[in-house]
Amino acid sequence: MRKFLFSLLKSNTQCESFKLHPHHQWRSITKVRLKWVKNRSLDHIIDTETELKAACLLKDAIKRSPTSFLTAKSVADWQKLLGLTVPVLRFMRRYPTIFHEFPHTQYASLPCFRLTDTAQMLDSQEQKIHEINEIDTVERLCRLIMMTKSRTLPLQSLYPLKWDLGLPDNFEKSLILKYPEVFRLYKANGHGCLRILQWREEFAVSNLQRSNESSVEGDEYRQFKSGQTALTFPMNFPRGYGAQKKVRAWMEDFHKLPYISPYENSRNIDPNSDLMEKRVVGVLHELLSLTVHKKTKRNYLRSMREELNLPHKFTRIFTRYPGIFYLSLKCKTTTVALREGFKRGKVVNPHPLVRLREKFYHVMRTGLIYRGKGENLIPQEDILLDGLETESGEGESEEKEIGTDEEFSEEVSEMDESDED
What we know:
421 residues, alpha+beta, 3-stranded antiparallel β-sheet, 11% strand, globular
């Protein structure tokens, strides 16, 4: 009798779960345990862009300074903040084409740094890009906030993503205040928050839906718009994984599940169901798609976990679906990248800001190679050229960069348990 009542209760629970959302929510897909495989091409991008980001953040800090320069003492404690593996003073001296060193007027032994003319020219171009692409920036910021439960995002969660999202340095004043009909800044429990004032239906379409929109016609379109059709995520497995029968079978079952839009209310979905797992994949896929470099740090996503209605151990998704995401351990941190966003060592369909940052890095590297000659080595005309070639190694085929040696492989569980970023 007790077994009968338990089975009846379990059946009723499944029925209630099904009524809450018109899709199968119980677990039926067999998971395949995969090993992490190092991708040297993506690791190279993450390695170089870590230094690029640090240089850009220092550039912005010099601009904000009332004196238009920074002392070595003022930046001495910024190494961890900038994500550097070397002291900040050594880093700034490494790139004389960006940072001009001079002695302090009162303390001759105190090094100071201001921006070179070349760096100021690049910064001027960056401000023009922000102005031209302002509407696009507002839309991407709206879409990020629309994915949250309360349509609100704490500024402390948004600040770390500023560079990845391509936001202007002082975006609260230079961007948010220009659109009072779209955004509202306020304080809650002593912390600043950013809220969108109205739902924008035209924004509530994910990048995956947009890429598949043209292939849907007739009666299927309404279901497609509401996220009730099965959409396939682009897959790019490490060599050897995609050909395995068990992996193919797993992905086929996964893709048969309905695609839940990251902008759809997910509170009624069983948190332990396959459907919720696919929803989490969709949210992370969309969030990375909104970044200009198609990647960000894992810890930045953790700070938005509750607002995005993600499970506690959602970062396991990154290693569970290596055909969609890549998890890098470069530069003493953990970075997650969207595989489909890269091809042959470069970002696919790069944002204008990405192209400008590539020029910025080109100037940095030139200063490093010819450190003694300084910024006069580069004619200013070259700074204005578009499509500068990246350093050797970035454009190589990803397949050639993938290895399966044991030194580059770890069990998924070991990576998931690593919390040090």
